[in-house]
Amino acid sequence: MQRKFEFSVDEYYHIFNRGTDKRIIFVDDYDREYFITLLYLCNSARPIDSREIKKAGDPFLFERGGRLVFIGAWCLIPNHFHLLVKEAIEGGVSKFILKIGTAYSSYFNRRHGRSGHLFQGPFQARHVADDRYLEYLYAYIHINSVDLYLPGWKEKGFKDSKASMKFMEKYPFSSYSDYRGVDRVWGKILDQQQFPDYFSEENSFENLVKGFLEWETEVDA
Question: Is the model's pTM score more than 0.85?
Fold first, then answer.
């Protein structure tokens, strides 16, 4: 399906894609960690040479140069992923997703002994033109991890918002921990200064997520 908009520099987008036939694209933690490393390495306007990366040792110490996109939030689920991005250069979003999709598909097929397309098709994108929608996405993207704790929450709602919050706090494969102030190398993926400063006040991020969970619980009651 052709998009009804064109990507533009300095505009925000919600990017997501899932495995073909809804298949699992992250089998284990090794797969997830590989994709997370690609979120960092592929976000570069210049080609990435694997020999240079090996020389650097820690891939998160590798100097990438200019960005293709600025990343504001991310979350991995077994059969799909979500990203909140801001286009940094013309064509940046499409180039970034192409680079990461090609690199990860090649890795995944090689490691798991398969061939063919890994993703269901062209990545999905939503233009974020409204400030309220942009703030909402910080909650929505991170709450997607609750799929693993409470399958079907989008249809059923949340029965226990506190338990859902605790699950998200322990789930490492999203940027949730980075917004809670956890110091980890994966925090280098984010370019928070390129996004509105919604979370300058203490506990403002947790309050946003908590408010979303409690609202969904009330609606379901």
Answer: yes
